[in-house]
Amino acid sequence: MIKVIAIGDVHAEWGRMWAALRSAYAVDADYAPTQPVRDGRYQVILLGDLAHPKSAHEYSLISGFDPFDFSDPAHLAAAARAQVRELRRLKRFADAAAGNVQIVLGNHDDAVLYRHHQLGTGYGVQHNEFDPHYGGILLPDDLRAWFAGFAREIRLGDTQFAHAGPASSMAYFDDFFYGDSDTKTWWREKPGMVQDYGFAFGVYGHTVMPHGVYIDPLNRFAMIDALDRREYLELIFQGDFGGKPTYNVISF
Domain Calcineurin-like phosphoesterase, which positions (predicted)? Predict the structure, then answer.
């Protein structure tokens, strides 16, 4: 039996992410993977969007500047440095986990890495801290190499873990992705997609779930962008990852 701890979009909410991992007994007090993670009985999957706080308030908290000015290079550098520090902590945790911590590439991670799109989350929030063209700084080379190795999807048997949805086009963050309303609405308007693609179960992020983790048992998927609600998904697989896993929504 293998337990998978699946956590939705992080968006620099490091305190909540580590609290979720501590709740799952996946990380110890020194930010090292616990024995069940190191030996593979527990596996951790993060569904991406590690970077870019969601709100101006969160930018103020991590940078120390209040109000936060999205056009001020000093503010942007402070926000970037705070994220770099925590990203390196997470990388050390993942590197020590013997392959049992996996991370899916989110569209915000892709934007940090390739800088093809300037992203924002509304209300004046612009994610410029890792883009020198807008006054930010480049993500350091070691973290760029790490981001470049993130998976577009993870499959455990017939269960898919992906950032935005079950279609392969939802894992490539180009103009089509940003122009396609399905990337945000498929789970509500086309919920049969997971079974159409042949998966026994699917786990996805990208779209904020304001009421916590959303489970569609009939169509066999979970939407787990719910770290703001202090929730993550725990899945139990048999050793061969066959069939549909059992699952529980965990509050922490």
Answer: 2-189
